[in-house]
Design a protein that fits this description.
By secondary structure, the chain is an alpha+beta fold. It is built from 13 helices and 21 strands. Strands 1, 2, 3, 4, 5, 6, 7 and 8 form an eight-stranded mixed sheet that branches. It has a five-stranded antiparallel sheet with strand order 11-12-13-15-14. Helix 10 packs antiparallel against helix 12. The termini are far apart. About 11% of the residues have low confidence. It comes from Pristionchus entomophagus. Pfam families: Lectin_C, PK_Tyr_Ser-Thr. This is C-type lectin. One of its GO terms (biological process) is cell surface receptor protein tyrosine kinase signaling pathway. Keywords: Membrane, Transmembrane, Transmembrane helix.
Amino acid sequence: VFDAEKMCKIYGGHLPSIRSREQSDVIQAWLSGKKIQSTKFWIGLYCRRGGIPASSAHDLSMRGIRAWFDGTTYNDEFTNFLDPNDDTSTCDLTVAEAFLFNGAIEGEWQRENYSQTLPTLMCSKPHSRGPDPALTTSTPTTRKTTDSTDKFTTMSTTSTEPTTTTSDGKNRKLTRLELILIISLGIVIVTVLLIALIYFLCKRIRREHVQEMVNNMQKRFSRSNTNAIVRQDEWEIRRQFVGIDYSRQLGRGAFGSVYLGRVFSGNIPEMAVRTLIQLNTLKKENNFVAVKTLHETADREAANEFMEEINIMKKIGFHERLVNILGCVTETEPLLLIIEYCSNGDLLHLMRERRMYMLKLKDTAGESFAERHLIITHRQQLMFGIQIAYGMEYLAQRGFVHRDLAARNILVDQNETCKIGDFGLCRKIEGESEQYISRGGRLPWKWMAPEALERFYFSVESDVWSFGVVLFEIITLGGNPYPDWPAVELLHRLKSGERMAKPDICSDGYYEIMLACWKGVPMSRLSFEKIRRKIGQELEDSSSEDYYLKLDAAAKYY
């Protein structure tokens, strides 16, 4: 059976007969409207026996006439053939050929073998029924044209009309309602996505606009408020608020100097004034401060150590027996550390000056009251020890080791009370080791414990050892420790158990406290709390009349 005819029968129709030019034009218009390129479809024109005109000179046994597959005789009035030499009246029965419509060549008919696969076909559709979609796996696209004599339906085996699969696995065409629902759902989804996209874009634009407004406000604020101070560091002071008297040098070290300065209390950072005591101290000193700065020749390592000292003092906090930080200038150079001003200088110089005065006296009883303030009594010495122990007790509780405890680093205020200063070597004890391992450098070896001399191990207990040496300095009014010990023998003699002898003017109880600070096993040394209590007991036991010391100028530690 001819493929085109069979295919049309599957759909319940048959190959059409083109009975009028109008019908031929409709087919060509359909092709032209769809813009089908190089697409061919059969229309069922074939060669059949019989009906040959009598005037034909051909062999009648091999000739036939063109006809449509529905049996209607072909009328060549309505069909244009590609080859003008084609005999349109008869055809050859021995050739398995038919004619197809070529949409790519302006709708002209073209001779082809009709056994080829049919990409597209055209059938005449009965009025009573249409194509059964269950009979094909490729649902055809339909386009209907109607005239007074017939109705046509075209079907393409490559069509893309929407389908759905039924429960028995077959495809069916979607209904109009289903198509409307699917399209509506798609429109809703696209609309929601567009709204969400617009929302987030607007939100982002608004956020950027707000940020731009904030930045502009900050710029205007900074320009209109040049004196406003907005800082992250609560200790920072503007340089113009710090006055330094470079003619009044209070101290000098290897990499820096300390000068007398002045900062009005109103310019001290509020968070830096931790207590009323600190604020009152500043006011009592008439707003004078001590300003520590680096030498111009200091290198980067010295600057780093100076910054370390500033940061340590910030962390330590306020205590009345410490030289407290009041502020700093670190945002610009030179770096400045602003601390409390102690008008009587360091304890070592104070004791040595008083000692020189006292050694000149033969009998202090005859001195006037105005001169007695230059005399240091034994009770004052004990008070110095208690005050220093109190400050060291606070440092130990805070987890710090001073590492440079000596009389030269103890400052004396206007009331002749001691304050621990110079935190350049002070370090925070990390973890549970309760000791700090130094990498060497400038260290006060005469004040160091054996474990610090040998392995650079520093701890609260090594500070206790140093405090014992400070007690020696106090009782001798600035005497030199280990005066007759060669430096190379110091560690060996200490490890062997040898200690400094008791000074001539030292009581037994006072010397016992010194020896308790110098025990070889660090953990067996006294704590600063116990030291403070023992010195306090010595103070209670001392005579209230014993207000002066009789010094021996020939002592070797002088």
